[in-house]
Specification:
Mean pLDDT: 78
Largest sheet: none
Number of helices: 3
Number of strands: 0
């Protein structure tokens, strides 16, 4: 029983910090990102890095032009 009180306070503190962080971000004109948008950004970054590695080995990246329609 006595362990539930500190655990509950930690959960409450985490929720309060999350709300404060969200309000601060929204005031600055942004928003907290969800996991899907971060996953899409990571995928695009990996794709760009693969294209850069190919181009740095002597390939100018023309064969990757078929991907450009996905960026529009």
């Amino acid at each position: 029983m006595i362990l539930f009180v500190p655990a509950g306070l930690l959960v409450l503190a985490a929720l309060v910090l999350g709300v404060l962080s969200d309000r601060r971000t929204r005031r600055r004109g942004g928003r907290n990102r969800d996991s899907r948008s971060m996953e899409v950004d990571a995928h695009e970054t990996r794709r760009d890095l693969r294209a850069w590695k190919r181009a740095s080995r002597g390939n100018n990246g023309d064969d990757l032009s078929w991907m450009s329609h996905r960026r529009r």
